[in-house]
């Protein structure tokens, strides 16, 4: 992370920040400046500001194309500058009680939110999405689609490094006492309620669960920090030994696809998927993963897995893209990756999706300056996830039920209160005031502690 500041005539000062970041970095910087410093600076470029401190950049120029340049900062005080043009928001830190209100007509808003609705239900409501002009989310129709944010390249899917022959996979089940299915997850309270389904599935087929959720098998000690080891070579080798891997996301929403989906495909293991209802669109071919929604119950799914586990030909039919190293150019996956102009894993050539969004907004701001009649508007489907569901004791999906559904409905109440406050011209309200007003309309039996878990 960089901490820097410059303008066309200043020296650039860069300090590498290696400790966890907090607002004090920005606050300390602001304290050193006089009251009118930010409003009076002549920056000669549109100013973009991260309202939710994200990059902790105090101020620097970005060059987007040959002629397009913007100044970008995490200092909110730049809003008073005559060149201020747009706010950028990181979705997880977007709070209805802390927004730049009232919003002025010339201000554009951009949303970056690659995370699932577990992090913030506000974007599941159309009135909130309508506040944005530009988006970068996991949805394929977003301005900067991040659906493939966990896939480095098509070559990763075709790579043979971790592929194990089907007969060896079968022998490993005996030699190393491996179950047919692997599950690695340590986030156990999720809107998808995945563990309810998996617990029922475990009654009908063995599953080796290495994470803290439904734990029954230990990872090597060097692999027990989930975020740091999810792409570790030893994790990939371990997953590659199994015939099947559970790829259950923490929330259900179209196009929400993470490393859980890509990892088994990378290593030649068949993913069993629950998450995006249209994940098939991003498969290497039309027969390389299994959806739990194709089976009425976990017992039915288990019967099919048992069949595949004992039929080598049928099993390898799911790995044809891998065994032949072929992905058709007409797949949405291939088309999406060919159009993607950003990289992952600190790609120093193409950059990342954060800089891509910043440049996208910068270029659009320049266009609206040239043509004030030009308007950009985000769509509900740029995020717009459905309400959470759960499972009954037999693993059958249930609508409008469960703890996470109640939290979703409480978020709806907060959004309703927020809209009413804006309609009344009330732009100054606290978190507690918003919360208490939503609580009154949520339900007569509402208990505050239920939503503080």
Automatic annotation (TrEMBL):
SUPFAM superfamilies recorded: UDP-Glycosyltransferase/glycogen phosphorylase
InterPro entries: Glyco_tran_10_C (IPR055270), Glyco_tran_10_N (IPR031481), Glyco_trans_10 (IPR001503), GT10-like_C_sf (IPR038577)
Record keyword Cell membrane present: no
Domain Fucosyltransferase C-terminal residues, every copy: 181-370
Name by which UniProt lists this protein: Fucosyltransferase
GO cellular component: Golgi cisterna membrane
EC number: 2.4.1.-
A Pfam entry, by short name: Glyco_transf_10
Subcellular location: Endomembrane system; Golgi apparatus, Golgi stack membrane
Record pathway: Protein modification; protein glycosylation
Domain Fucosyltransferase N-terminal: 47-146
GO MF term (any one): alpha-(1->3)-fucosyltransferase activity
Record keywords: Glycoprotein, Glycosyltransferase, Golgi apparatus, Membrane, Signal-anchor, Transferase, Transmembrane, Transmembrane helix
Keyword match Transmembrane: yes
Organism: Adineta steineri
